[in-house]
Structures are given as C-alpha cells and as structure tokens.
Amino acid sequence: MQKHPDLAILLRAATPLVVVETHEEVRAIEAFRGCLAEFWKPLYRWSVTHGLVRLDMDMPPAPGQDTSPQGTLRRILQNREKSVYLLLDFAPWLEDPVNIRLIKEICQQQQAEHTLAIIGPKIELPPGLQPIAHRYDLQLPGDAELEAMIREEAFNWSRRHDGRRVKVHKRSLEQLVRTLRGLNLKDARRLARNAIYQDGAITDEDLPQVMQAKFELLGQGGVLQFEYETARFSEVAGLRKLKHWLELRKPAFFADKPLPGLDSPRGVLLLGVQGGGKSLAAKAVAGLYGLPLLRLDLASLYNKYHGESERNLRESLKTADIMAPCVLWVDEIEKGVAASDSDEGTSRRMLGTLLSWLSERKHPVFLVATANDISALPPELMRKGRLDEIFFVDLPGHEVRKEIFRIHLQKREQDPEGFDLDELANHAEGFSGAEIEQAVVSGLYQAYARKEGLNDSHILAALKSTHPLSHVMAEKVQALREWGQSRAVPAD
Ligand SMILES: Nc1ncnc2c1ncn2[C@@H]1O[C@H](COP(=O)(O)OP(=O)(O)OP(=O)(O)O)[C@@H](O)[C@H]1O
Ligand SMILES: [Mg+2]
C-alpha cells in the first residue's frame, strides 16, 4: 500500500516545486523514495555539506563538482533526464535573487519536467515562487507505520540482548499504537524505545508512563493537567446509577466503528452538593474506562489569560483530541462559562468554543463536567444532546454513609468490623462524603492524642462538633437538592 498517496500524485504529475516543512528530514526522504519505487525517476539529494548525491543508485559524486547552491541549480537546469531533487535546508539561499531566478527557470522548462523539493523545518517562499509551489504536509504516521516502528525497536532490543525476544501482549501492543497516535515518528520511536528498554516487554504497565510522556511532549502545561492518579469505583460509595450508565456505554465508546443505532457517548455533567464526591467520581470514570485523565481548569484559564482564554481553550481541546481516547474533566465548569455582563463576552465565547467542539467531536474524548451552582450554568450547556446526561449527586443516604465510613476506615488501616456503622451513619445525617471523611480523620487525631485505639466514640465526638454545610447553608443546599431531584437523574 502506498503510504503517501498524495505525494505520489504530485510526483507523477511532475509538480515542479514541492515544499515540505518538517523536522523529520529522514522520514521526508523516505516518503519520496517510497513513492519513486513505483514509477522510477532518478532521485538526488542536495545539502550544503555533501552537495548533490544520487540516492536511487550507488553513484559517486562527480569529481570537482560545484556544490554551491547556485552551481547546483545550474547543473539541474542543464540535466535533460526527468529527475527529482531534494534540497535539504535550502531556505537561507531562497533570499538570493539569482537562486530564485534559477529555480523559476527550472520549473518553467518545458521538456525536462524536474521536481524540486525543498525540505526543512521552516520555509518561507519569496513571492516570485509562491504561485508555482505546492506545499505538502508529511502526514503523521498511521497505525501500520507505528506498529512497524515498534516491531523494529523490539528487534533492535533483541539484537542487543543475545537474541532474547521482547514479550509482547497483543492487546498492550494495540494500546501502545493507539497511545502513540498524533506524534511524529521520531517522538513516537523514543517513547516506544523507553517502554521496551525498561523491562524488555510491552505490557499494560507501560501505558500510563507513555501517556504522560506524550502529554508532556504536547507542551500543554498550566490549564490542562495530566492527572496521574485515577480512582476505582470501589473507592466511591453510592453513585450506582452513574456507574451502571457508564458500564452500559463502554462498548459504544470504544468501538472502532459506530455500533448500529448506538451513538458513542460524549459525556456527563455531575451536579451536586459540595463534597459529595463529584471530583472523585470524575477520576473514577477514567479508572473504569482505563483511560488517561486530563483536567481542564476553566476558572484559571478564564482568570489568568486575559484575551487569550479562547485560544488557550481551543489548544487544550486540540490536545485532548490528540490524547484520545481519554477522559477530559472540567471541574467547576460554571466558573469558566457562567454568563456575566462584565467580561466583554469572554465567557460566552468560551462556552461557544466548548459547545461547538462538543457537537463536532471527532475523537473519542469523554467529557466529565462538574458543577455545584446551577444558577450560574448557561441553559445551552444543559440542553439535551450536548451532554448525554445530567446526574445529580445528592447527600448520601443511610446505606451510602455506612459505605463511606467503611471505605475511609479501611483506607486508614482500621477494621470496619470493629465499628458500629449503623450508629455512625445515624449521627452523620446531612453530612457529605467529604465531611464524613473529615470526621474519621479528626477521630484518629483524638485517639492518637489520648493514646487510644480509634473507636466509635472518637468519631461520634467529631461528628457532634461538626456543622455540616447542609445545616450551615440550609437554604442554598435545599434549593440545589430540589432542583437536582426534579430536573436531573439521581447518580445513586
Ligand atoms: N461517595 C463517596 N465515597 C467515598 N468517598 C467520598 C465520597 N464523597 C466524597 N468522598 C470523600 O471526600 C473527598 C472530597 O470529595 P470530592 O472532592 O470528590 O467532592 P466534590 O463533590 O467534588 O466537592 P466540591 O463540590 O467541593 O468540588 C473525596 O476525595 C473522598 O475522599
Ligand atoms: Mg470537586
């Protein structure tokens, strides 16, 4: 199969001037070589250090050859055999009017039909050459090319280790290929090599590191963060409906081709009281789907980058697309897109950018947005069809509170069997998950101060001395709960 069909077309048509802007010189040369393997033409490369060298056959350079840019162009002009010339790092000589004229004459020659290809990292053409030039983008490597590269690296490892073979799990290899998508071959090779050389194997354990390294290569520090820690749903009490919903849609999200009649899920909005476990749930979505988690801080995007907010948002979304499949977590979404009259429309435009990305979404990015202030949420975001569902994360009921105690006691190496969970849950009515966790933590401090083992009385004392938010801000929390219970799907 032709790897660069568009380039092949350009060469068949004897396009006189092709410009390839790339840092991957070797790969560019290989692309030309690959195309010319099908319909032969002599292929030359020129560099200031080596002059003109024939690439398609082993031919020593002509003795006494004038290797200067001008001398080279004159020779090309005189050659009557249709050929392809790759001019490496030629950009600085494009400022010379004589060279410009020579290139023009080569391109206008009727019989010779040469192709000149200028290859380099940054190429600005003088106005005289612009109309005759054709820019060609070296496509990023596809899956087949990535897999071939990984196999090559595995082979190299094997040669250096007395022929021992790299252990390759088929599924991990597929995942690695998927993770390397969106990178150029050089960077992808470096990451693949690191993964192989660590332990002579390609396994699922390599993936988080490769994902993080890829994220760092994309140079998106600041507003978009790679969250190394994801969570498991077993660490989250309640939220059973949300979990079930996610599990049902997992196959559609990961399908290579759309499943008949089933749309790939786009994302959810988690709305709820503070400390109810929304952020924890966002992490657990990534854990459940086994995907990297990117966290977008809209509030700081909005505050820190005046005038640049939208561009930064667009770039963050592009990075998420390149990192796909992944979970994009937008925490406290209302802080970035809330309608406000005082910001010259920035928040409106950010919302517009986000909504159009959501509706045009081309890559498997699952959005998890969290919010705890409904009054600030713009109606466009809430409209059905943008996000798949709005879940309400309510204050935990009795059984869920018991489970939260169990989880946080276990986390701190306490045996839940030694506690009266029913009693604790009774006294924690109106408490959020975060507040229950805090009661366990304060109880531990109490016990430690008294040189005692933790027991119910320490936690009960901590609960009694806490005023949960649902009491302190009773009206606000009540309003939110009423809204959530009537307009959103309960998460548990
Ligand atoms: N359902 C739960 N199960 C287990 N732990 C929980 C639960 N809810 C909250 N917690 C604990 O409380 C901590 C804080 O919760 P989290 O930050 O997820 O709440 P939130 O809803 O995002 O709050 P906020 O609105 O303030 O952002 C969690 O890290 C977790 O330890
Ligand atoms: Mg949160």
Could you characterize what this model shows?
With 492 residues, the chain is α/β, with parallel strands linked by helices. It folds into 4 domains: 5-135, Rossmann fold, CATH 3.40.50.300; 143-217, Orthogonal Bundle (Helicase, Ruva Protein, domain 3); 233-393, Rossmann fold (3-Layer(aba) Sandwich); 398-472, Orthogonal Bundle (Helicase, Ruva Protein, domain 3). It is built from 21 helices and 15 strands. The protein has helices spanning 5-12, 25-36, 69-78, 97-108, 143-160, 170-180, 185-199, 207-217, 240-254, 278-289, 298-304, 309-323, 334-337, 346-360, 379-382, 398-411, 421-427, 433-449, 456-464, 469-472, 474-487, and strands at 17-21, 43-47, 51-54, 84-88, 115-120, 133-135, 167-168, 201-202, 224-227, 267-272, 293-296, 326-330, 365-371, 389-393, 489-490. The protein has a 7-stranded mixed beta sheet, sandwiched between helices. A 6-stranded mixed beta sheet has the order 3-2-4-5-1-6, sandwiched between helices. A two-stranded parallel ribbon has the order 7-8. 35% of the residues are buried. The model has no long low-confidence stretch (mean pLDDT 89). Bound molecules: adenosine-5'-triphosphate and magnesium ion. Adenosine-5'-triphosphate binds at residues 236-238, 272, 274-280, 370, 372, 404, 407, 433-434, 437. Magnesium ion binds at residues 278-279, 331, 370.
